[in-house]
Amino acid sequence: MKRRLYFLISLTIAVLMLVGAHSCRNRGGASKVEITPIMNKALNDVSSIWYANFKDFPPKEERRRLPIGVFDSGTGGLAVLEVILASDYLDNINGGSGADGIPDFHGEDFQYFADHANMPYGVYPSEGKADYLRELGVKNALFLLGNKYFKLNSDKTPKGDKPRCKILVVACNTSTAYGLQDIENLLNLSGTGVKVIGVINAGVDATFEDILSAPRRDSLSIGVMATVGTIDSDVYRRSLLQKKKDENYNGYIQIINQKGEGFAEAVDSEKDYVDPTQTAPRKDYRGPVLGDGLGDIKEELLDVYNFDFSKNAILYKKVNGKYTEFQLNSAANYARFYMVSLLEQLRHSKEQAPLKSIVLGCTHYPFYLDTLKQSLKELKQYREKGQLIYSHLIADDVTFIDPAVFTAIECCRTLRDDNLMALRTRRGEVDAFISVPSYSVSSKFLDKDGNFTRDYKYGRVAGTEDITTVAVPFSKENISKENLKRIEKMVPHTYSKIKEKLK
Questions:
Q1: How many CA atoms lie within 13 A of 181 on its CB side?
Q2: How far apart are CA 240 and CA 207, in angstroms?
Q3: Residue 278 carries which DSSP code?
Q4: Can you tell me the distance from the alpha carbon of 290 to that of 319, in angstroms, rounded to the nearest whole number?
Q5: Confidence (pLDDT) at 308
Q6: Helix 173-190 vs helix 199-212: angle between axes, to the nearest 10 degrees?
Q7: 144: closest CA among 117, 178, 167, 177?
Q8: CB-CB contact of 188 with 159 (8 Å)
Q9: 3-class SS of residue 433
Q10: In the chain, at which end, N or C, are there fewer CB atoms within 10 A of the end residue's CB?
């Protein structure tokens, strides 16, 4: 009887432990994870064009030689890749902190994917298409995890072969904010062991390292400059406040969010926001205009903005000496406008705590870091009726935070911890891809430059089998001369690796 009782008790305990373990797994596992349509297709639907067949993914012991995958909504993410390629923050022998004169990713190959056809990502949430934005992030991950690409957008099937990627870096703040969790869930369910790193947590960590390394203040402000979508997600504010709590930082921190509508698009030469061929205001412009509303260009602040009017960088019309139309027509002027807008927010805030850190919460913004720094310097010295009006709002040791640095460090440490560094003696290579409209999209949905019309781009729905874009290699046909010149100037390490493959 006792034996039977002991057996029943043991069996009960074992069952409870098993259920408990299963429940614990489910808290972060499959039964509690939202399975979106694209995830379900990738994992389970063998008839779907999005089926990933993760069972054929190379085993861990073969993955060292695979490339690192990086994606962004456009070419702005090349700024992140540039930092990764040039990074020397760790000792290559023991992985400890400190430069050793050898690039941390020496010998590593990379795949970069610019989802240019679907940008700007920051608009999708405001158009009620956050679910489609989430799907784009998963599709980008699936491309980098896959082994095929289209050689031409006219191809009906992918004819190019490529290696799969061993780790993913989401070099896009908006995609990190809306899609990182979906990508993490997909990878967890895939059984591949592949990991993904997003730029936002890296930016938050970098911000607090900057704050904690300086003399402690009773109060300070953190500025966050990002796309409309990233700001609307509230992810930076929530993450910064959580980090403040985790670090037991008792000083007052004010967070000033600055939406940068059109800034990233201007960097990527999107004609809705900049068009160097224009000499007068145009009807299809979608950037900031003169007005009194939130996000408008204030006529009384034109001296403060200190815009560059040369080479049609501002398109305007005047009647009787007064501006009747005013349009930004260069990425540098977008940078100036949003730098002043951030300081104006702070100037009219209740606390007016000095600005200590400015987070560049979009990968496109570091391309114009020099302009942002110059604008801030001018603001610190700007006088109105002889009085400095911004100086007290800007700390003497204010720091611009580029999340890319900490993203590079986290990526390297993750690969080292997982024993996945390539450890090659040769220098690594970069294969770059860009999305373009698919041959299957009717010409009536394309503009004169061959890009999606706005209504079509933001009118698509999630969960379909439609292939509206295809990934093709970077070429001189799908990247403008102006964009290539900017890439060559701003990211020389990256450009040197991709220029030889440009056709």
A1: 11
A2: 8
A3: -
A4: 14
A5: 98
A6: 120
A7: 167
A8: no
A9: strand
A10: N
Task: Check residue 32 and give its pLDDT.
Answer: 72
Q: Taking CA 148 as the corner, what is the angle to CA 144 and CA 149, rounded to the nearest 5 degrees?
A: 85
Residue 495 and residue 482: Cα distance in Å, rounded?
Answer: 14
| Sign of the dihedral through C-alpha 378, 383, 389, 395 | positive
| Three-class DSSP category at 198 | strand
Q: Report which DSSP code applies to 20.
A: H
Please give the Cα distance from 381 to 155 (Å, whole number): 57
Q: Which of 459, 441, 463, 458 is nearest to 450 (CA)?
A: 441
Residue 214 backbone class (left: φ over 0; alpha: ψ -120 to 50; beta: rest): beta
Contact in structure between 223 and 256 (CB atoms under 8 Å)? yes
Beta bridge partners of 472: 434
Residue type, 46: V
SS (H, E, C) 105-134: CCCCCEEEEECHHHCCHHHCHHHCCHHHHH
Q: How many helices (H) and strands (E) does the chain have?
A: 16, 16
- What confidence tens digit (pLDDT) does each residue in 403-454 have? 998 899 999 999 999 999 998 888 889 999 999 999 999 999 999 889 999 9
